[in-house]
Amino acid sequence: MTLDLQNYAVRTDLAIDSKEMAQGGQKQTIPGLREDVEKKDGITITRIDVLDDAAATAIGRVKGHYVTLEVPSLRNGDTDLQERVAAEFTREMEDFLAKAGINKTSKVLIVGLGNLNVTPDSLGPLVVENLMVTRQYFELVPDQVAPGYREVSAIAPGVLGTTGIESSDIVQAIVDRTKPDAIIAIDALASRSLERVNTTIQVADIGIHPGSGIGNKRRGLTREILGVPCIAIGVPTVCYASTIVNNVIEMMRTHFRQETDQTKQIMGMLDDIGENDRLSLVKEVLEPLGHDLIVTPKEIDEFVEDIANIIATGLNAALHDAVNAENVAAYTH
Amino acid sequence: MTLDLQNYAVRTDLAIDSKEMAQGGQKQTIPGLREDVEKKDGITITRIDVLDDAAATAIGRVKGHYVTLEVPSLRNGDTDLQERVAAEFTREMEDFLAKAGINKTSKVLIVGLGNLNVTPDSLGPLVVENLMVTRQYFELVPDQVAPGYREVSAIAPGVLGTTGIESSDIVQAIVDRTKPDAIIAIDALASRSLERVNTTIQVADIGIHPGSGIGNKRRGLTREILGVPCIAIGVPTVCYASTIVNNVIEMMRTHFRQETDQTKQIMGMLDDIGENDRLSLVKEVLEPLGHDLIVTPKEIDEFVEDIANIIATGLNAALHDAVNAENVAAYTH
Amino acid sequence: MTLDLQNYAVRTDLAIDSKEMAQGGQKQTIPGLREDVEKKDGITITRIDVLDDAAATAIGRVKGHYVTLEVPSLRNGDTDLQERVAAEFTREMEDFLAKAGINKTSKVLIVGLGNLNVTPDSLGPLVVENLMVTRQYFELVPDQVAPGYREVSAIAPGVLGTTGIESSDIVQAIVDRTKPDAIIAIDALASRSLERVNTTIQVADIGIHPGSGIGNKRRGLTREILGVPCIAIGVPTVCYASTIVNNVIEMMRTHFRQETDQTKQIMGMLDDIGENDRLSLVKEVLEPLGHDLIVTPKEIDEFVEDIANIIATGLNAALHDAVNAENVAAYTH
Amino acid sequence: MTLDLQNYAVRTDLAIDSKEMAQGGQKQTIPGLREDVEKKDGITITRIDVLDDAAATAIGRVKGHYVTLEVPSLRNGDTDLQERVAAEFTREMEDFLAKAGINKTSKVLIVGLGNLNVTPDSLGPLVVENLMVTRQYFELVPDQVAPGYREVSAIAPGVLGTTGIESSDIVQAIVDRTKPDAIIAIDALASRSLERVNTTIQVADIGIHPGSGIGNKRRGLTREILGVPCIAIGVPTVCYASTIVNNVIEMMRTHFRQETDQTKQIMGMLDDIGENDRLSLVKEVLEPLGHDLIVTPKEIDEFVEDIANIIATGLNAALHDAVNAENVAAYTH
């Protein structure tokens, strides 16, 4: 399918990346795609609706609602900013739950995809470690549960290489047995743009699709497969070396174009070919040498921990009315 | 049931502890219980068969086959000894599999119970991290699997406090979906004797029973519940403070009896009462003060890691004919 | 020396333990020892001054000022309580610094003793990881340092078994080179009472003495040795099995005495002998069997992390005027 | 100094990188530089002697002896290969020690530079954790030390941001106090070539120079500063995004040149400028956007652990005659 090939080519899991590529430098509008951008105090929230198949094909993303929080300064370790991001994320999650028809008493299963022992892939399991799960109280002592809490469970299914079982199979098995009303899946992603790595949170109502994420999660977690709404939360934690290179070549072209009108002579043939062709070229060079490594910033340990904390905090507040900005720290560590 | 109460009273998960308590100091024989002890070079292997209900009641353990490897020097970090223990453990596992009717092609699911973030409870998840799983190859590229391997999968289901779901429910769900022929469950245990903590491996064909283990795994993993044979591997990593105290009082009584015939006057009333009454007494003192802590040796990090490695090494060798003492390091790290 | 033997016998590093033992059950006053106890909302602060040699001999502690914060509920993981403890600890540290003549511009070197890889011994290194060090700015860009900060450096010297060098030698070397005005040393301790483990913080102006702490730090860090004031912060994270047993026997005696007047017959000879003799007896029983393990509660990972965070937070606030309760989170993670 | 600027420009810490750049694509010989390449079974050992100042200037490296082990397959996690690399590394280290005049009884201090909490910078501290240190035995029980051991101590001094003290100051302080005869310093490096990251070990007799390594170790550890020979062991664990891009552009140029003779038109102006100018250009584009991240492969956790183990194993065998290929596992974990 064109969609997949194209996304594979650029190797991004972010709708905002795909949209920008489809628009090109000219920022042309795409029919069937609605976009709303809000900026506040260092946080840019972009809400994209992919409304029809044409728009889906144009940007290479399935139809659905995508929200992206971009926080360029998130890598600075500023705890004040982190708290504000958690608050915005809580608000967006509440909207999402409402739109997906997940009401205050719906039972939610949170799935932390990825591998705890590969730092850039550890986001999902780290979030799970910090969630406030309550299902056990509803099962064991239902009349003692205080108001303001819903039934939340959570699982980190591990990765195929460690378990021998597709994580989607594990999730499906648990869904069959515990019958949640909705799934929220958290996964580490790849981005085509280095500056979005570890600074961006994407929420989408489309679940997890085959080939997304940085690990091996082939079958996907979607409403079609699982039978309940499935919201996906993703954070790009890695880039392919080839996308970095391709990105810079693109940036150089833009950069020179501003300085000179002799573009052609600067970049030569590289300038004439389209982005995907150029990317193939970059890969053709990199792959025989075994270099198309997936890379991550060297401070990844701290970045992933900080973002996992933001997401866990936001989920705890969004899912339980009794948890809010004031007392959330008591539930998350 | 008497069995459970008694075992609760002494808080041990080791059949060898229960047997010794039932025998008392005099080492009397118990009808319906067959025992075989083999000693080699620092390793004592005790094979106990609880053959009938009377024996089960007598020692407070369900009927079944129990093998215990006791290695008093295991806490010294001697890698030579560790390799020999892994080799003995492999042999015992192979016997167990054969006796349980698990043949060379039976599909095995290994379950690592416990919590990775609580060191003394992390044994199961640590073993899972070092297993050689193969189910994915049998599923995806069945004709490319070399001879000498069987289908092995593994899961660390987490604990109730983190997932909100009983680990037995998670295992049951995965068993229903992936249809293994046998289960091997690994769990950290409590022992009544401090010297067995982190020096003992117990294997039993009885699965995991309610109340066993040091975490919350209420429903149990047994052949009756899961429908397939379930072998349990356990290592005591903790003791209750009360059992330490009780143990020492017992040791003091024995000690003094050897030195004097005035026992009564030394221990007073403590000497007249039975072990369980005395233990209740110790707890009566400890619990109001909130002291009946579960304790573990301070070097627990290293101890658990070493034993997890021995078990993973042994399982890899016992389950795959192609893996043996020479090449096992290549599969385990 | 009597002092050392006695403290060795009971194996405690807490002055409050030593004082209680010297007082016996009757809580008799000890000449030369001044004590002040303040209780607020779940925190008991005991300030002890050992004023003369007689008092020092009586309780088996060197002369000096000792403050103990006891927080029995600290093991419950309540973040509100943790914040209040950090605030009280900050206040006590500020008093200590003032009393020790360490003024607002004195340069402080913080020493985190212990081994990061042995959880109950990891307190010191964990605190160091969360401190706000500033010495580098005073060295490199002195005119850009904002007011309200002092020069703070920190070191985790490791343990003898890993470095081959006494940690006191490493500290001495760094003191000689960097010339701090005062030392604050953090170490994990042993307590004789299980309920004080992981619930108690001791601050003392006496430095670290040979044989204290749970690792191998023979030479000590004291004003006499290092030439500058040395404040010691300690948290008991372990108990000896023998002290647990001895403790319970003592508790049983007290317990029975309340219920009956037949004490003698209950405990027999155990009742007639003094605490130290009884302890020797307990050890005589335990040691030949190699059981006198140092034990720690099984939840030690979380306990140590929480307390390390409290101490780092408190030190950051006590040492820098610009850091206070409101913004301290921004400096500590 | 030209040297530094040039090395900064390409941001590499590997002499082999510098040499290749100085040679250009034509592999021209450089006067004053002696090179010897040995290939065996997947391991390429390159021994470079920078004999005079002219050669030093030519390649931008100080005079000295450099050995590089390149093992392209090291990232595959093959334990057999790891053992062979450890054996080759042992041999090279033994040569190095002999050449540097460090005899069998010389006292060695091993310094593990870097930050344990930043995975790509954790190589040094990880090696230290696995070394066999013996100095304490020579100090405490000198007549009980078996033959075949020398006096080895080790320190992980931490990083400036955590300690507030330059690591070179900490090392100098410890050298002054413990008087070793030689230093071996281990550090994580940056490479200009992605394929050398985590596959290469460099040993050099030049110590650690200002600006080398991926952290802040400004003052350097050299024979001139410390007064004793200082051998540096380094492994590139990171790349700058800019060097990846630059590298690929270079590779594209080579690639196209083979396919076509219209090179100019393909790469345009990029082709006419020298490598350093092109790199400046790449940086000019990347830096304003804050993108010149230091990146590392996503599997860095496992890669660093494996290589740290190889180095520790090799050092233990090279430093102690009594430790060899057969028993080295008993000393390293």
Automatic annotation (TrEMBL), chains A, B, C, D:
Keyword Cell inner membrane carried by entry: no
E.C. code: 3.4.24.78
Keywords noted in UniProt: Hydrolase, Protease, Zymogen
Molecular-function annotations in GO: metalloendopeptidase activity
Stored Pfam families: Peptidase_A25 (PF03418)
InterPro entries cross-referenced by the UniProt entry: Pept_HybD-like_dom_sf (IPR023430), Peptidase_A25 (IPR005080)
Subunit structure: Homotetramer.
Record-stated family: Belongs to the peptidase A25 family.
Name under which the protein is recorded: Germination protease
Record organism: Paenibacillus xylanivorans
Taxonomic classification: Bacteria, Bacillati, Bacillota, Bacilli, Bacillales
